[in-house]
Amino acid sequence: MIKRVLKQLLRGFVRLYHRSRMEGLDRMPDGSLIIVGNHVSYLDSFYLGALCPRDIHFMARAESFVNPLSRRFLRMAGAFPVNRAKPEIHTMRTALRLLSEGKVVGIFPEGGIRGDNTFEELKQGAAFLAVRAQCPVIPVFIDGTERALPPGKWWIRPAKVTIRFGTPIHPPKSGNVKERQEQMTQAIRHSLITLKSAGNEVLTG
Q1: Structural domain of residue 184, as residue ranges?
Q2: What angle do CA 56, 93, 104 make, to 5 degrees?
């Protein structure tokens, strides 16, 4: 109940203060799903979680769970810890359990906040889970949160925020596990770059 109320309040704030826009939301399927996105601000998981109609269980860096207050808030939001250097078995088991229950898992595959959006180095956790759970992945490009809360700043600015949803990517049927994971990772990278380019075309068009 509390989580639902907080989500509605944050959604209203983002829509009014940031004039938020959601593109391609109709592409989101029912059932188990992995959402992967670029990560440019500490606001990303909060805003994406608030604006998405389905609840997202984000992988959050383990360091964020050290503080009792932040740990309680993250747990209430449905997040679970991940060691960014080397994901542990229990983290993957938690994600697979959520997916087996038909839920949504959120992952930032760059492994942390990156400002360049080049997607040159994507960790394969999302691809691994998709292949193991046989569920689709939806790439998401978040634009504007880096201006709303730039690195080193604490005041949230009223920058316009746009979130673009890509087309679902389904795990390939052929090849061994390693090959299928690599195909998924490449498809995710290509989709994220395409979503980024779509925003650039709007700005320059």
Answers
A1: 2-204
A2: 15
Helix (H) or strand (E) holding 177: helix 177-204
**CATH number, domain containing residue 188:** 3.40.1130.10
Contact 34, 135 (CB under 8 A): yes
* 20-31 confidence digits (pLDDT tens): 999 999 999 999
Q: Which helix (H) or strand (E) holds 186?
A: helix 177-204
| Contact predicate 22/140, CB 8 Å | no
CB 75 within 8 A of CB 58: no
Q: Which amino acid is at 13?
A: F
Whole-angstrom Cα distance, residue 36 to residue 109? 7
| Residue 144, amino acid | G
**What Å distances lie between residue 17 and 12, 50, 106, 203, CA to CA?**
8, 14, 24, 21
Number of domains within the chain: 1
Q: What is the pTM of this model?
A: 0.90
pLDDT tens digit sequence for 79-121 = 887 876 666 788 899 999 999 999 999 999 988 887 777 787 8
Six-digit token pair at 59?
Answer: 């992988």
Kindly list the distances between the CA atom of residue 108 and the CA atoms of 17, 42, 72, 92, 205, in Å, as whole numbers in the listed order.
25, 12, 21, 15, 29
d(CA 1, CA 100): 24
